[in-house]
Amino acid sequence: MKDRIVEHLHYLVGLRLGHIGRASNLVWIGFGEYSTQDDGSGQARMLPEYALHVQCAWRLTQGAEPFLASQDIYVPNPTLVSDETFDWSKVGNSRFDQLVIEFLSSIHDPLVVQAVKADEHGGIIISLSHEVEVQVFPDESRDVEVWRLLQFGGSGWHFVVTGRGCEEV
Description:
The chain is mainly β.
């Protein structure tokens, strides 16, 4: 599995990180140039060349310090909501949403993918410039999707990793 993962992730090397967002607790990270494309539902949207969709434990680090992690979605954004009114599923309410805005606005030079690594259990590390890493830790033992790499445009393939293996769809 490790070799198949690296084979697909190598397309990211040399591309810049363009955006980070979420839909509920699915986090996506866009890589490469953005262009207007059909999103698959007949709607035209600005989409990256590749997107990583993550539905398991993950974190972003710079040097030895984590600065954004999967559980931040479930923590209130202290500038917007109180614990009593907190609804993590509403984009903008969570610490994650606040930290993504701060992180993306602090980038003055592009973050470019320099290397990718994988393990036999579907874990990955995407190393970017400025000592930033995207680290993904599958935490599922069933045949359930934990992350996927999507290629928009071209052949439009998806590479899906589950708790039990991987496949291109």
